Amino acid sequence: MVKRRYISSRMLQEGMVIDQSILDSTGRTLVARKTVLDDYLINSLRKLNITGVYIREGEEEQEIETKNISPATLKTIEREMKNDRVKVTLSESVKERVATGMQFMFNNPKDAEMMNAANSISGELMKAISQNDAIAVDISALKVSDEYTFKHSVDVASIAMIMAKQCNMSDKSVYQIGLAGLLHDLGKSEIPNEILNKPGRLTDEEFAVIKKHPIYGYNLIKDKTELSPEILLGVLQHHEKINGKGYPMGVTDNKLTPFARLLSIADIYDALVTERPYKKGFTPRDSVEMIMAMTGELDIKFIKVFMESVILYPVDSYVKLSNGELGKVVENVVGYPTRPKVVGLTTGKVYNLYEDTNCASIIIV
After folding, report:
1. Phi, psi (5° rounding) for residue 343?
2. pTM for this structure?
3. At 21, phi and psi to the nearest 5?
4. What is the domain extent for residue 74?
5. pLDDT per residue over 118-148, tens digit each?
6. SS3 67
7. Is 348 part of any domain?
8. Is 364 within the bounds of a domain?
9. Is residue 53 a contact partner of residue 6, using CB atoms and an 8 Å limit?
10. How many domains does the chain have?
11. Looking at the structure, do residues 76 and 115 belong to the same domain, yes or no?
């Protein structure tokens, strides 16, 4: 596997390998992923006001090969393995359409066609959920773009839609919360890029500007008659907290809509796990535990629904345990995404992280 790092465009050097595709406003590829950068391309990126990109940084651990696992361990893996619940999956062609639509939305937030793009993307996500009756989401498999804002908005929409389905909301509500998720950060299109993509810590003044993006987003869509009040308030309130310590208005529990309560959890989780210019991403386990610790700020009912909706370590994936052993995930437990059943590749031991008290001190690292 290849390491990747986000780097400011000012720090790019000839010979670096870009680990993302750069698209224009129509979705055409300007610079392909894995391209070796030269001075001309670096200067072109800067002229396009692209403030930073992901670059490749050599090799990580070698991929684990099945031939190195003993026959007895392979039999244990086969015996213990149980397929995950049906997850949302997007084909590559759908990902391309979604990425192009997201780029259009954020580059043209005031365009009359913006809502057509949003409805088209929400429709694609709804179809992906409905086609195979998906009831869970593996965020790592959804990636539609290397551009954070686009990826984040689709992640939030997808998580929110699955959570809404878990809550037995109507298909109309599932679709609408998908729209709210896609639109929730639209107001960031009004924030100067030098603040939005600043590689260092924001000043208090700069953070005050960032905190206005829910209002900017609300103002961009408030006159669109096809959007329900739930969608509008979901966008406006997605950073509010039930204890009144959120923003932009500091409203409390009784004024927060269900859409906002649900979106805030999806938004926080995806922001925590994602690497940004100014921070490393937290592990899925740490991110979930941080959300579980926010019961004074987030709706505990929706925290529980979130825990039942996400798959952090898909069955058949490799993980490293805190006791040093590498393992393969063979079963997930609904509601306990950080505690799957794992088979150790060296010992063949079954680590039932959810039920076995002997595994209580072992975590996935």
Report:
1. -105, 125
2. 0.81
3. -95, 140
4. 66-83+314-359
5. 999 999 999 999 988 999 998 878 777 767 7
6. helix
7. yes
8. no
9. yes
10. 3
11. no
